[in-house]
Design brief:
With 126 residues, the protein is mainly beta. It is 0% helix and 48% strand. The chain contains no helices and 11 strands. It is globular, with a radius of gyration of 13 Å. The termini are far apart.
Length: 126
């Protein structure tokens, strides 16, 4: 049973930074893809970033490219989302997700991920 625990959200001013963490357990994640999604009030959940655990290839939504970085710590089995130059429109609940069946072509697909964290709130406001 895969378990994902999100953390690291909070309130930050525009232009500030936050680092989200996703601690994973219950499997060997060697062949998994790990993703970050977000959902703002009144909006659908959307793709933010993803990483292939096997080759560390990364993928980003255009809206966060150049500002956000996804990375991992193998020893801690933890995936991070470093968020810099935050904007008010980045305000959302952020969710970590994982699945072992994802390919390059499906990395951004919300419905492709079977396992989800509980979410962590990020609020960007002055």
């Amino acid at each position: 049973q895969v378990q994902l625990v999100d953390s690291g959200g909070g309130l930050v001013q525009p232009g500030g930074s936050l680092r989200l963490s996703c601690a994973a357990s219950g499997r060997t994640f060697r062949n998994y893809a790990m993703g970050w999604f977000r959902q703002a009030p009144g909006k659908e959940r959307e793709f933010v970033a993803a990483m292939s655990w096997s080759d560390s290839s990364t993928y980003y939504a255009d809206s966060v490219k150049g500002r956000f970085t996804i990375s991992r710590d193998n020893a801690k089995i933890t995936v991070y989302l470093q968020m810099n130059s935050l904007k008010p429109e980045d305000t959302a609940v952020y969710y970590c997700a994982a699945d072992s069946r994802i390919t390059i072509g499906t990395m951004r697909g919300l419905l492709e991920y079977s396992y989800w964290g509980q979410g962590t709130q990020v609020t960007v406001s002055s």
